[in-house]
Every structure is written in C-alpha cells, then in structure tokens.
Design a protein that fits this description.
alpha+beta; 9 strands; globular; two-stranded antiparallel sheet
C-alpha cells in the first residue's frame, strides 16, 4: 500500500490493520511509516536500521516485565534469542503535537522469544520526537 511518499508495501513482514491510511495526515503517516520500518527491521534482525530509529538511552520492557537496555535487546535479536517472523500493527492511534508524536497500538508478534514460539499480542505506546528532520523513538 502506497500513500504519497510512504510505500508501506516495502515492509513484507509487517501488516497494518484497523486504520484507514487515506484518512491520516502527512505527519501521522510519517510516524506510522517509521514504526512500520522499525517493525520490518525487527523481522530482518537489521540492527543498523533499529539503531537509527532508537537512540542509546531507550529501554525496552518485555511482557514479563523484564527490562533491557537498547544494546541488550538488540544483542538478543542479533543472536537469535529473539526471532521475530511477522509484526502486526493493529488499530494504530497516532497523535502529533509539534515535534512530539505518539502511536498507540496492539503489536501482534509472531515470534520465537527465548525459546517460546507463538503469537503475542501486546498493547503499548511508542513515543517519538522529531530530531534533525527524522522521527526518533524516545522513552516516556
């Protein structure tokens, strides 16, 4: 699905459901695009792209409550302890306020997480900040 300058079809392992992309503003589409790009990088274990989107100080919290630094999380993806096959972005709600944005959605992860293969549904919000013309993930 292509919407203006955002070609979501490039993300072969990512599905977006529950949103009419034609109803989104350009800013909202740009935030969704970055989130989809990040999700595709998860399935590709493309740590380089993930590092471009997520700065060093971001922490990750797993369903179990376990917290990891960016590098701990990325290392688990790189070595296959976390293996994402597909990622669904379900019912995204995007808000943009100046140089800050948030996307609330349900992640539908088909993954092998530390030896437990399954489909995991996790509701959450990813916050972004515009830095040097790019949306970058931030804590908060």
């Amino acid at each position: 699905m292509e919407h203006g300058k955002y070609d979501f079809s490039a993300f072969k392992n990512v599905t977006i459901t529950g949103a009419d992309l034609t109803e989104l503003t350009g800013d909202e589409l740009s935030v969704l695009y970055v989130q989809a790009r990040y999700c595709q990088a998860m399935t590709d274990a493309d740590i380089g792209v993930m590092r471009m989107i997520v700065p060093e100080n971001v922490t990750f919290t797993h369903m179990s409550g376990r917290r990891q630094t960016r590098e701990e999380y990325f290392a688990d993806i790189a070595n296959g302890r976390l293996n994402y096959f597909t990622v669904g972005i379900e019912n995204p709600e995007i808000t943009v306020n100046g140089n800050k944005a948030a996307i609330a959605f349900t992640s539908v992860l088909n993954a092998d997480a530390y030896g437990a293969r399954g489909t995991y549904r996790i509701k959450g919000t990813r916050r972004y900040e515009m830095r040097n013309g790019e949306w970058i993930a931030v804590n908060g």
